[in-house]
Amino acid sequence: MTPSVELDQARALDRQARAAMARRDAAAARQAIDLLTRRFPAFAPGWLTASIFALDLGQASQALAAADRGLALAPREAALLVQRVRALHAAGRAAEALDAAKLTETAVAGDARLLHELGNALSLMGAHALALVLMRRAAERLPDDPALNFNMAAVLRFLGQFAEAETLLDRTIAAAPRDWEAYGARSQLRTQTPERNHVLELNARLDPPPRAWAGEVQLRYALAKEYEDLGRAEDAFAQVSAGASLRRRNLRYDVADDVDTIARIMAVFDADWLARAGPGCASTQPIFVFGLPRSGTTLVERILSSHPDVTSLGELNDMPQVITSLGRAAAGGQAVSKQALVELTAATAPERIGGAYLGRLATAAQDLPRFIDKLPMNYLYAGLIAAALPGARLVQLTRHPMASGYAMYKTLFNQGYPFSYDLDDLGRYIAAYLRLSDHWRGLLGDRLITVSYETLVADQEGETRRLVDRAGLAWDPACLAPHRNPAPSSTQSAVQVRQPIYAHAAQQWRAHAGGLAPLAERLLAEGVDPALIA
Description:
Layout: H1 3-22, H2 26-39, H3 44-56, H4 60-73, H5 78-90, H6 94-104, H7 112-124, H8 128-141, H9 146-158, H10 162-175, H11 180-187, H12 199-205, H13 213-229, H14 233-249, H15 255-268, H16 271-275, E1 286-290, H17 297-305, E2 310-312, H18 318-330, H19 338-346, H20 350-360, H21 362-365, E3 370-373, H22 382-388, E4 393-398, H23 401-409, H24 423-444, E5 448-452, H25 453-458, H26 460-470, H27 517-525, H28 530-533
Parallel strand pairs: 1-3, 1-4, 2-3, 4-5
């Protein structure tokens, strides 16, 4: 077989694999990729396709290995270099990924598509300023590309540049009117006014609704947000309810599984476990900030990271990834249920967990006196974190259950929190969360720094001073002006945290008390103190 014929066959198999990936046919894609890499191992583009496929399946180590195989054949291939950055990041090797991205910048300089892709990767790493630089370079060549404009708007939002972000989202929608996510992103950028809003446009897009259910959900949440800004509470709740119901019908989720897992955590991580847990790892660097989503975790993060000795590393997945990987390793590499993972983790020496966690962050945190890990769901692991990192500070946010429930219900999360789209699910989950919070307070005592969102917004200075002191920090007045904190924010609250602290959101749920009645009823049925719901 001549080299040209081999090359043609390799290219044909590569196209076949890419086509199968595009239509979400994983079996056909796997078959084509296996044949491609086995028959034509010297065909570098085949390893790129193999890496992309593995990463799509969440197989980061396989994706990295495939990218490295391709780069061994074509060391300067820009697309492979970018793919290696993405695989490194997915594998939890954040510092290496960032270093590789900076080295790759020159290789992609002439390719707008790869500049965009590398910019996206950098944004996922939290390097938003550098991501914006690359995206602007890409936009010089592709000024009307809707995907590029959408992603650049997201980065601008993280950096607090809301006016330009809105302009780019307007352009995205004009060029790609079925990019439904752009409508929701645009509505979140500012408070809508009677003079400047998109209510007519959004209603027109919903008459009739898009065929794609996810598009209808995006539009309804966007419209709900704009109605609420305009003081049309009844219309806002109707849209949230319709959007949430549609999303819930398309989720495969049973809240009982999460409730049972929380109950198992309380049973396993008790006083006896803590007494025999072992010494953990000595480090005073970490400050963990956690609580239900939309409970004020981002506000507290911004307050603390306004201090000159504190840097936020954002919503890190490192602790749950360490816990999961060590638990699965103890199970022989097999996937295990959530409840089984609780048992396996409890049997793991805390110093192993603390050491693995600090090891993953060694480069990113090496020069930082203190750093914040603000992953809301770390409340599941509070006892484990306390044992694994006895020098860490643990800050838990609390919020009125009805206010917390409504704040979650009206938020369309990009991923996670599947319990938030049904009021009965929400009530069951919040009640389980409250039981777990009581358990951690009883177990950890003063180790747990509890901050009430309502108290914080009502007495900003008093609560801020208490928080700073409990975190082991010297007082700094910058902590009273978190809205001036220039650090990027990539959370759902990225717009709100750029504003001075305000108290009106604490009581916002009361305008929807009638619609939220199923939530209140479920909380009462679950034994939540009626005084906490009033």
